[in-house]
Amino acid sequence: MSKFKFELNKAGVRELLKSGEMQSILTNHATNIKNRAGDGYEQDIYVGRTRANAMVSAETFKAKKDNLDNNTLLKAVR
Length: 78
Prior knowledge:
By secondary structure, this protein is α+β, with helices and mostly antiparallel strands. 55% of the residues lie in helices and 18% in strands. It has helices at 10-18, 20-37, 61-70, 72-77, and strands at residues 41-47, 52-58. β1 and β2 (52-58) form a beta hairpin.
């Protein structure tokens, strides 16, 4: 048996999760989801306390109704 011990560098992981590269990856994913969802959906990205976050939301009444009736955003994530 090996006595290998792995210790995660928490500050390094936090820095990675907030990095510009991670923000770029999240922006690409959010753009793809927004494009699959259709018109009336908007995307946003922000850096929180522990990591970068991206979100896609319905902005117009038509998009909100479409998402409510058809779960458009959930289906666009797949």
